[in-house]
Design goal:
The protein is mainly α and about 90 residues long. Helices cover about 75% and strands about 0% of the residues. It has one domain.
Length: about 90
């Protein structure tokens, strides 16, 4: 998957991916143990989403997004702003 086009897209992905991972984990838990093909598919999807989350977080942390926090205050989601601040604090 390509890198985010801009900071806003990265923040949107950052907000969406944890929910996608949780959904896949719930689906995986509901699948019968003997259904190996579907279980492997869900496990692969979880790994792909976790990898994407790490890529987006790394992209934001490198400063390729904006070095300032101005974009945080223009987004409508408080959870995105809180997560972005956590990413900035973790990067230092």
């Amino acid at each position: 998957m390509s890198r985010p086009r801009n900071e806003r897209q990265a923040l949107e992905e950052l907000a969406e991916i944890p929910g996608q991972i949780a959904l896949y984990q719930r689906d995986l838990a509901a699948l019968p143990i003997h259904d190996k093909t579907r279980r492997e598919m869900r496990e692969c999807q979880i790994r792909e989403r976790e990898k994407r989350l790490a890529e987006v977080e790394a992209w934001l942390a490198t400063g390729k997004a904006a070095a300032s926090c101005e974009a945080i205050f223009t987004t409508s989601s408080l959870s995105i702003a809180v997560h972005w601040l956590a990413v900035l604090l973790h990067a230092t």
